[in-house]
Design brief:
heterodimer; A: mainly beta; 3-stranded antiparallel beta sheet; 44% strand; flat; B: mainly beta; 6-stranded antiparallel beta sheet
Chain lengths: 153, 339
C-alpha cells in the first residue's frame, strides 16, 4: 500500500512539474421533479443531500485552460462509478466503452458477449467509460463543460 | 448525502492532498460488496465517487490530468413488504389451539433494518375474530412452524434484523372458539414496521441511515401489512333410522316372533371429516337380538369385539366407522325379534 502511494505521488509530481495549464473539475447533482404551485412539474438540479437507489444523477465535468498557451487534442475520460447506470450525455458527441476502457465506439456499434457465445447490442447501463475528444484547440482562458447522466443502481 | 464538496485545485500541495484522499476512498470503496448484486439497489453507505481524467497537448508534449473526486454517499432507503405464504384459506376446526398462519417479511431497502411485528385478529371483512396466541419467528428457516424449535417473538426484544433483500417467515398462532361454525372465515393480518421510522414516501430521518447517511422512507412508507385467512371446517353427522317388520306368515305385522330389520344411515356433512365416528344403538325392550345380523355397507359383521368394525355386548350394537369424510354416508343394519 505504501509503495503504491509513493508511486502515485511520484506520478502526479511529474505531471505537476510539467505545469498542467488545463484544470478539470467534477461535480454531481441530483435531478428532482418539483411540483409548481400551478400543478405543473419542473425538473430541478440540486446538491446531492439525499441519494437513494433509483435517483437520477447529473455529472458535470468542467474544463478550463488556465495557462497562457493554447492546448490541443483535449480528451476527457470519465469512468462510470460502479453503482451508477449510465443513461446518456447531453451532447451525444461521446465515445463509450463497455469493457472497462479497452475498446471504444458509439454505443450503437458496441456489443456485449453473452455466456452462450452470441452477442447482443450494448445498452446504456453496460457503459463503463465515457470519453470526449475535442477537435478544436482550447485557447488560453477558454472554458467548457461536459455533462452525462446516470441512475443510482 | 454529499460527502466532500467539489472544489478547484490551485496549488500542487492541495492537489497531492486531494489525490491521496481519493486513493484512500477508492480502497475503502472496493472493500464493500458490489452494490449492483442487490435487487434492493446499491447498498446504503456506499460511496459513489466520480473522477474524470483528461489529456491534452501543449508545446512541450502530452499532459495527463485528473479532476477532483466528486463523492456522494448512498443513503438508506427503508422499504419492507409482508406477504402471506399460505396458498389460500388455512383450514382449522372449532376449538383448535394454535392455528398457524404464515407470512414472509422482506427487506426491500438497501440497508440492514430492524422491524417491529404486530398481528391483528380483529379485521373487518370476515366472520369471526380468533384469539391471538403468539407470534413465532421461523428460526430454522424451513417455512413450517415447529413448536418448541422456532423462537417466540417478543416485541422490542427480538425484533428481526433483516439485511437488504433478506426475508424471514413469521407465524401467527391463534385459538379458535369451540362454537365457531363451519365455513366461517377469520382475517388475521401481520404488520411489520421499520424501527427507524415510518411516514409518507420521502420522509427523511437525518443521520439514521446505514453507513452514516440519512434514512429515507420508500414507496412502502416504512411498513408492510398482509392478511391471511383461517376457515373453520366443521363436519357433522346425522343419523336416520328406519325399521321393517316381517312376520312369520309373510306379512309385516308386529307380533311375537316377528323380525324387525333396523337400518341406520349415518350422513356426514359440512367440511373436513369426522374422526373415530362410532355408532351405538341399544336394543329396544321386548326384543332379542338376532345373532350375527349386523352389516356395514352390506357386509356382515361378527358380534364379537374383534378386528371387524362391529360388536354386540348383550344390550347394544356398536359399529366403529373410523374417519368419515364429509359428503359420505355409512349404512348399518341389524335385526331383532319381538318376544
Amino acid at each position: 500500500m505504501k509503495a503504491i502511494f509513493t508511486l502515485i505521488i511520484a506520478l502526479f509530481a511529474t505531471a505537476s512539474a510539467m505545469a498542467a495549464p488545463v484544470e478539470l473539475n467534477s461535480e454531481v447533482y441530483v435531478e428532482r421533479l418539483q411540483k409548481r404551485a400551478d400543478g405543473s412539474v419542473a425538473t430541478i438540479l440540486e446538491a446531492p443531500k439525499l441519494v437513494v437507489p433509483g435517483d437520477q444523477l447529473v455529472f458535470v465535468v468542467r474544463y478550463k485552460n488556465a495557462g497562457k498557451q493554447p492546448a490541443s487534442n483535449l480528451s476527457v475520460t470519465n469512468p462510470i462509478p460502479r453503482a451508477v447506470a449510465f443513461s446518456g450525455t447531453a451532447d451525444g458527441t461521446e465515445f463509450v466503452s463497455v469493457d472497462g476502457g479497452k475498446s471504444w465506439g458509439t454505443l450503437a456499434k458496441l456489443k456485449i458477449g453473452k455466456p452462450d457465445g452470441t452477442f447482443r447490442p450494448a445498452l446504456p447501463s453496460d457503459v463503463t467509460h465515457v470519453k470526449w475528444t475535442l477537435n478544436q484547440t482550447l485557447a488560453a482562458g477558454s472554458v467548457g463543460k461536459l455533462v452525462f447522466r446516470g441512475v443510482v443502481r | 448525502m454529499l460527502r466532500t464538496s467539489s472544489h478547484r485545485i490551485h496549488s500542487r500541495a492541495a492537489f497531492l492532498r486531494h489525490v491521496s484522499a481519493s486513493v484512500l476512498a477508492v480502497t475503502i470503496c472496493s472493500a464493500l460488496p458490489a452494490g449492483t448484486a442487490h435487487a434492493a439497489g446499491t447498498l446504503a453507505g456506499t460511496n459513489i465517487e466520480n473522477i474524470a481524467t483528461a489529456s491534452f497537448d501543449t508545446g512541450s508534449g502530452t499532459v495527463n490530468i485528473q479532476s477532483n473526486a466528486a463523492v456522494i454517499l448512498v443513503d438508506e432507503l427503508i422499504d419492507v413488504t409482508v406477504a402471506s405464504t399460505d396458498p389460500g384459506d388455512v383450514p382449522t376446526t372449532p376449538g383448535a389451539a394454535n392455528a398457524v398462519l404464515a407470512y414472509r417479511v422482506t427487506n426491500n431497502g438497501n440497508g440492514p433494518e430492524t422491524f417491529r411485528l404486530t398481528a391483528n385478529v380483529a379485521n373487518s371483512g370476515d366472520d369471526f375474530d380468533p384469539a391471538l396466541s403468539q407470534l413465532v419467528i421461523d428460526t430454522n428457516n424451513n417455512g413450517v412452524y415447529d413448536a418448541g424449535v422456532d423462537t417466540i417473538y417478543v416485541a422490542g426484544t427480538n425484533d428481526p434484523l433483516l439485511q437488504p433483500d433478506q426475508n424471514v417467515v413469521i407465524f401467527v398462532l391463534t385459538n379458535i372458539a369451540p362454537t365457531q361454525a363451519n365455513g366461517e372465515r377469520a382475517n388475521v393480518s401481520l404488520l411489520a414496521t421499520s424501527t427507524t421510522g415510518t411516514g409518507a414516501p420521502g420522509t427523511t430521518f437525518a443521520g439514521l441511515g446505514e453507513g452514516g447517511g440519512d434514512a429515507v422512507v420508500g414507496t412502502t412508507e416504512g411498513d408492510g401489512i398482509a392478511s391471511g385467512f383461517l376457515r373453520v371446517d366443521a363436519a357433522s353427522v346425522s343419523l336416520v333410522k328406519s325399521a321393517i317388520v316381517a312376520d312369520a306368515f309373510g306379512g309385516n305385522n308386529a307380533v311375537p316372533g316377528s323380525t324387525i330389520t333396523y337400518t341406520i344411515v349415518a350422513s356426514v356433512s359440512g367440511s373436513g371429516s369426522l374422526n373415530n365416528l362410532v355408532i351405538n344403538d341399544p336394543l329396544p325392550s321386548g326384543t332379542t337380538y338376532v345373532a350375527n345380523s349386523m352389516t356395514l355397507q352390506a357386509t356382515s359383521l361378527t358380534d364379537a369385539a374383534d378386528t371387524d368394525a362391529g360388536n354386540f355386548n348383550g344390550t347394544r350394537i356398536s359399529v366403529s366407522l373410523g374417519t368419515v369424510p364429509s359428503g359420505e354416508t355409512r349404512t348399518i343394519t341389524f335385526q331383532t325379534r319381538i318376544q
